[in-house]
Amino acid sequence: MIKQVVIKNVRNVCRQLLIVISLLAGAFLVAVFIKSIGFPVVNAAVVYVLSVLLVARFTRGYFYGILASVLCMANYNFFFTQPYYSFNVYDKSDIITITVMLIASILTSTLTSTNTGKLLHASKLAEDRESQTNILYQITSSLAKASGVSDVAAVSVQCLSNLLDTDVLCIMSAEQNSSRSLFQARRGDRRIQISEVGNGQIEEYSSGKKVIPIGDPSNQYGVICIPVTASQKSREREKLVPAIIMQIQSAMDREKFSEEKKIVKIEMEHEKFRGNLLRAISHDLRTPLAGISGTAEVLMSNLKNEKDRDLAEGIFEETNWLTQMVENILSLTQIEDGHLVLRKQPEAIEEIVGEAVKHARKIAGQRKIILDIPEDVLLVSMDGKLILQVLINLIDNAIKHTQTDGIVQIKVYTDKNHVWFSITDNGSGIKAGDLPYLFDSFFVAQEAKGSSRSGIGLGLSIVRAIVQAHGGRVFAENDKGGGAVFRFYLPVKEIDSDER
Amino acid sequence: MSDDRMFLIVEDDKQIRSFIRASLENKNYKTICVTTGMEALNIISSCPPDIVILDLGLPDMEGIEVIRCVRTYSLVPIIVVSARDQDREKTDALDAGADDYLTKPFSINELLARLRVILRHSGALVSDTPEPFRSGDLVVNMDKHQVYLAGKDIHFTPMEFEILALLVKNPGKVLTHSYILRAVWGSYLDSDAKSLRVFMANIRRKLLEDPSTPKYIITEVGIGYRFADE
Question: Which of A105, A142, A271, B76 is the most exposed place for a label (fewest CB within 10 A)?
Answer without folding.
Answer: A271
